[in-house]
Write a structure and sequence with these properties.
Shape: elongated
Low-confidence stretches: none
Structural class: mainly alpha
Order of helices and strands: HHHHH
Distance between the termini: 27 Å
Number of strands: 0
Number of helices: 5
Strand content: under 5%
Oligomer: single chain
Length: 154
């Protein structure tokens, strides 16, 4: 087997996680942006407050977690069982782990904005803080997914 294929097979899980993590983050950002734009439209103002940022983060988090569960289960950690008991256990553990990281995802951008990291990116309030927090959350979620949710039985 040639070197690139060997490296791919050796690091397949990490490569898949990076791709799925990127897509999950993108899903989160798109939902967040749409919710912020919806708030702007509903209120008729250009600027939104910390409460709207927090609520938009909560909605974005929930949508992204639904996407991430199925993508991580099937594509990353290759947990193919959809037997009711296995599926529900993984779902509960996954949501539990994501609730832990979700607390960070939901509240940290608002806190960082209040501390001065309030730069707009793409014209969206709080986006610099959101990007910084997202990087940390992707790493945390890999660790929790691998060692808590989709553990391989020995």
């Amino acid at each position: 087997m040639d070197k690139p294929k060997q490296l791919f097979h050796k690091y397949r899980e990490i490569i898949a996680y990076i791709i799925v993590g990127g897509l999950t983050t993108l899903t989160n950002w798109v939902i967040y942006s749409l919710l912020i734009l919806l708030v702007r439209h509903a209120t008729g103002t250009e600027e939104v407050g910390a409460q709207a940022i927090t609520l938009s983060n909560a909605g974005a988090w929930f949508g992204a977690v639904l996407f991430a569960f199925f993508a991580n289960k099937v594509l990353v950690f290759e947990s193919k069982s959809f037997e009711k008991q296995v599926f529900l256990k993984e779902l509960v553990l996954f949501f539990g782990a994501r609730m832990l990281s979700g607390v960070v995802e939901i509240f940290a951008p608002g806190i960082l904005v209040a501390m001065g990291l309030d730069q707009k990116i793409f014209g969206i309030e709080g986006f610099a803080a959101k990007i910084l927090v997202s990087v940390f959350v992707v790493i945390l979620n890999y660790v929790l997914g691998k060692w808590m949710v989709f553990r391989k039985k020995k």
